[in-house]
Amino acid sequence: MHDSIRGFEEWTDPATKQMLSNLVDRKQKFDRAKKMHLYCLWIAVFTSFCFFYYLTKAILEPYSYSFGTMFSIFISNSVLVIIAVFLAGLFGGVRVLYQQKEKKEKEYQDLRKEIIDRSKDLWKEDAWKKRHKVFDEMKSLFDINLYHGSK
Predict the structure, then answer these.
(1) How many Å apart are CA 96 and CA 90, to the nearest integer?
(2) pLDDT reading at 151 higher than 70
(3) What is the pTM of this model?
């Protein structure tokens, strides 16, 4: 459990603290997945740009008179074929990372909305009046909004 969550006072019971800790963990996993997807996407785009620029200068411009010649030169150079397959795999990997990011975001948002929906059960009587302190700390420390359910 995170130290800042452990430091919430007596108006937050241990089960609620554990839910908040799980929420923080899911948020961190979502942020890592989002960052990894973005990095891989930019690497794929930049690498593809460089590859197509090279193809334009090395094959398309000198042999533009014949598609058959361009194709045979491309296929005869195994390095170009390997790079093309690598780029296709890289974009496939970006797609997989995007799906993982979406899954982690859904898990995070579902738990966040559950905490918001159950806040009346989690903070009762006097604790209900002080829950805004917990919400403020979650927003300032972890960038998790517990005030309302929409993104």
Answers:
(1) 10
(2) no
(3) 0.86
At 57, list the tokens. Answer: 């200068």
Which amino acid is present at 104? Answer: K
Residue found by looking up tokens 């554990």 in the block: 18
Decide: 84 and 52 in contact? Cβ < 8 Å: no
Domain ranges (residues) in the chain: 13-142
Cβ(44)–Cβ(91) below 8 Å: yes
pLDDT, tens digit, 9 for 90 and up, residues 61-113? 999 999 999 999 999 999 999 999 999 999 999 999 999 999 999 999 999 99
What confidence tier does 33 reach under pLDDT thresholds 50, 70, 90? very high
Lookup: tokens for 29:
């996993």
